[in-house]
């Protein structure tokens, strides 16, 4: 889907010809962000963007890259701790939205006796367990089935960078996202990154110079929407400077 | 000449747009969904707040009146029930007005209204707020010497066609429903109906078998608001997706 992307406006009806053909009769159609179903079988759009379909998963959604992050269950986010109450930390997912609750016991190895101590403004890498449409949003730092952190938890040191929501999705979608800049940089530098779907990138390179170089490189790729060749140029430029 | 639009150019707002037509230039910004004040909170709907800032000075009752009209129109297209207990803040800053605006002899709030509505919609699209449909708006003037309405007249045209018998503002949704009508002056019902039909043609896409895919390929006339809007959104999508094609 490049030039052939179907551009939609809110309120457009999606004809059934443009929806994915189910390969398996039993598999129901999944509607992603930006689409709504009006019974019996009308499917209309609610936001402006490009219509994307996936025949294998039998899913359709609208791809867009603007606006505020809206929490949805299962998303990985980087939250900022605001304060701590008796049972939970109150965290910001995006500014000026209701605070999300991160229970004190939702950390690996946390018990009533040994609770983690997080001062205000510390960062946590967490997963959303409740999107907060009808209650307050909730996040967790453990996998409920294994009780392990699986890479989630407090982020110590490093620095955060603001990236667009589309860039965060690209970074998290692996090969499909087409981001090669991190692999390129990692050949010469050592660093850690965490990507939050809420448009936050955390980088720790051990030294301020490395951290800034990596963060700025990603922001540049984001702002100029660079492809693979452009990213290689950015990598070369950064490695020359270090 | 068709209107000009730039989307998402303010980096601290969730959505923004600048719209310019016939010497009117307006910056719109949308913040939301954000936390709502307890006293404005609605249990099952989003609260919408519209702020209009005039080009010069502070807001007056004229701006309050326009805010109410825009608030009520937008409330019928925003899916407020999908984002309950939140706030949508829409700010519209008038950047410049044409010089002739005050001397045309017609209500200046009506000549500004369609531009404000179009800017508000562009900002909402930029902020990716869930909408049930789009809204497009147009101004029509009926001069005293003829009975044929002039569509989205330039202020210079209005000055030349003086005296103007009546002016009308129409706003239509994407499914051709009339959402807003404000009229000023003396006119007969037939004249109003003619103006309404003309406005519908300008605001909405041509009726008939224009499918979703076909509508964009037609290099539609620039005076059709719906195809113009589609063009603006197409440019926005291309901008966002250019990494897929970039090498």
From TrEMBL, chain A:
The UniProt record lists the K Homology domain at: 158-208
Q: Look up keyword RNA-binding and say if it applies.
A: yes
**Record's superkingdom?**
Eukaryota
Q: Which Gene3D superfamilies match?
A: 2.40.50.100, K Homology domain, type 1, Nucleic acid-binding proteins
GO biological process terms, alphabetically, are: CUT catabolic process; exonucleolytic trimming to generate mature 3'-end of 5.8S rRNA from tricistronic rRNA transcript (SSU-rRNA, 5.8S rRNA, LSU-rRNA); nuclear polyadenylation-dependent rRNA catabolic process; poly(A)-dependent snoRNA 3'-end processing; TRAMP-dependent tRNA surveillance pathway; U4 snRNA 3'-end processing
The record's section on Pfam families has: KH_6 (PF15985), Rrp40_N (PF18311), RRP40_S1 (PF21262)
Which GO-annotated molecular functions does the record name? RNA binding
- Would you tell me the protein name for this molecule? Ribosomal RNA-processing protein 40
Question: What species does this protein belong to?
Answer: Lophiotrema nucula
What taxonomic lineage is listed for the species of origin? Eukaryota, Fungi, Dikarya, Ascomycota, Pezizomycotina
Automatic annotation (TrEMBL), chain B:
In terms of superkingdom, the source organism counts as Eukaryota
Which CDD domains does the record match to this protein? RNase_PH_RRP46
Q: What is this protein called?
A: Exoribonuclease phosphorolytic domain-containing protein
Q: Name one GO biological process term.
A: U4 snRNA 3'-end processing
Which cellular compartments is it found in? Nucleus
Q: What family is this protein classified in? A: Belongs to the RNase PH family.
Instruction: Provide the alphabetized UniProt keywords.
Output: Exosome, Nucleus, rRNA processing
List the GO cellular component terms: cytoplasmic exosome (RNase complex); nuclear exosome (RNase complex); nucleolus
Q: Where is the Exoribonuclease phosphorolytic domain?
A: 8-130
GO terms, molecular function = RNA binding
